[in-house]
Amino acid sequence: MRNKIIFALVVLGMLGALGSAYVYAVPSKPLPPVFNPAPNPYAQGIYANGIVESYQVNGENTNIYAEVPGTIVRILVTEGQQVTQGTPLIQIDDSIQKATVEQQRSQAEAAQALLEELRAQPRKENLEVARAQVEMAQASLKTAEDTLAKQQASYKLDPESVSKDALDNAINGQKVAKANLEVVTRQYDLTKAGAWVFDIKNQEKQAEALAKAYAASGALLAKYTLKAPTDGIVMSINAAIGSYASPQGAYDTYTQGLDPIVVMSTSKGTLAVRCYIDEILIPRLPPADKMQAQMFIRGTNTKIPLEFVRVQPYVSPKIQLSNERQEKVDLRVLPVIFRFQPPPGVQVFPGELVDVYVGEK
After folding, report:
1. For the segment 173-215, what is each residue's pLDDT rounded down to a tens digit?
2. For residue 64, which phi and psi values (nearest 5 degrees)?
3. pTM recorded for the entire structure
4. Distance separating alpha carbons of residues 82 and 91, to the nearest angstrom
5. Domain interval for residue 216
């Protein structure tokens, strides 16, 4: 009995295995694709990876870096905001530079004040003092001369009436008073002439140098505020309040690299597509006047005709646009730029990867 049960179980297992093998061997019907792959619309079209970017006469997107390092204390705009040229975007801590500007402003004002003082000489009060000293010296000389004349007259009448010592003192007093008058007269002329021209020129240079230092310091202070270099849209802000900004950019936590602090695009509705043509396909590239292209947005069946703009005539190493393992990065490519107007209802953003076919008219 036991053997019969075991035999039946074995038979049932074999039948189950054969049934499972048959069921799994039947090919399942593939699911329809969510969207059709990008077809080649040209008889001999060239395929290229493309990346959408803002349309610029030259270059790509507008990448804004800090010209001075420091900690970001305020972010004055939001992503997607339309801004005009000169709009403040990011404020970097400028407390130290502000104090430096104030110090140099005070130094420049002090130097200018001293220059004005030199130019305003002679001061009226100083000139009056010098004139009074001349008048006093003249009076002293007159007194000394009168005293000497009296002594000499008395000596002529009676040599015994005046001592030799008194006469010598009168003569010396007259000489001292005369010399003193000459000194104060020259001092008066010097005061009346005002500041020396070389002193004025030296102070002019000092004031000019300090004024330029103040202007340079003020210009540096203005660089602590990042401003929009042109009209456009703020596409990306790659920093937060408290982040450290440097001329090399802001540190990105995820890529562990340095990115532009702000990325802007033009405010126009026109967008550009930068296509990278493989170097082995360059000989098949149509002439510029006959070149046309179509762009296919990934994940949709949307295709958009492109208008040729220019060829960047420099073959450069291919960049890795995606993280696909099969993508080669050891080739060289030729950038070709097209432009287009996004159709109504179609959302296309700078930085988006697209499929492009380039053909001939």
Report:
1. 999 999 999 999 999 888 888 888 999 999 999 999 999 999 9
2. -110, 125
3. 0.68
4. 18
5. 98-117+201-221
